[in-house]
Structure formats: C-alpha cells, structure tokens
Design brief:
Structural class: mainly alpha
Helix content: over 70%
Number of strands: 0
Low-confidence stretches: none
Length: 117
C-alpha cells in the first residue's frame, strides 16, 4: 500500500508543476505518460489489496484509479499553463485496466510457479 500512496503523491506532485507552454516532443506523448503513470498506480493498488483477482475487482480498481485521475485533472486545471481534458482521463482508465491486468497475470504466473515447486 505504501508503494501505491507514494506513486499517487508523485503523480499529484507532477501535476503541481507549472506547464512550460512548449510543444511536446511528439503528438500523444501526454497520453502515453498518463497510461503509464495510472497503469503503475493500478498495478500497485491491485498488488497491495488483492491476493485473488476477478472481474469485479477490476471494476473497483479501475473506478478508484479513474476517480484519482479525475481529481488530478480538476486540480491540474488550476495550475498555470496546464489544462485538463477528458482524453487524459480516458488514458488514465486505459492505464488502470492495463495495470490491473498485468497484476493479474503476475499473480497467475506466481501461482503456476509455486505449484511447480
């Protein structure tokens, strides 16, 4: 749980930094950053609170992570040279699903490995 909390603080801290107003290195970089950041957040939350995974737990994790993404976007709208967008929240949701699925696959692999020993 500590990893999840630390990562959430890092995300909100980075949202606190004023935007530079400079163009991105390439189109879509922002969305990739959102998918990765919120994917890691979902992975850490899933690993912290679940030993067994299910589709209903996927919904809970995604809802929690997307809610944090919405809060992040609303907060980010108050920072100079930053804006918020629904497409960022959608990228957060995609990352949340991906992060949960990676945690789920990790658990399946760990269980298979344990059974082989």
């Amino acid at each position: 749980m500590i990893g999840f909390l630390v990562w959430a603080v890092i995300i909100f801290w980075s949202a606190s930094l004023p935007g530079s107003g400079q163009p991105q290195a390439f189109t879509g970089l922002d969305k990739i950053q959102h998918v990765l950041a919120y994917g890691v957040l979902a992975f850490l939350l899933a690993k912290a609170i679940y030993r067994h995974f299910s589709w209903s737990r996927l919904v809970v994790i995604v809802m929690v992570v997307v809610l944090l993404g919405v809060c992040d976007e609303l907060y980010q709208a108050t920072i100079p040279n930053r804006n918020s967008s629904i497409s960022d929240v959608m990228a957060d949701g995609i990352g949340a699903i991906a992060g949960f699925l990676v945690a789920w696959m990790w658990q399946v692999y760990s269980n298979m490995k344990r059974k082989q020993q």
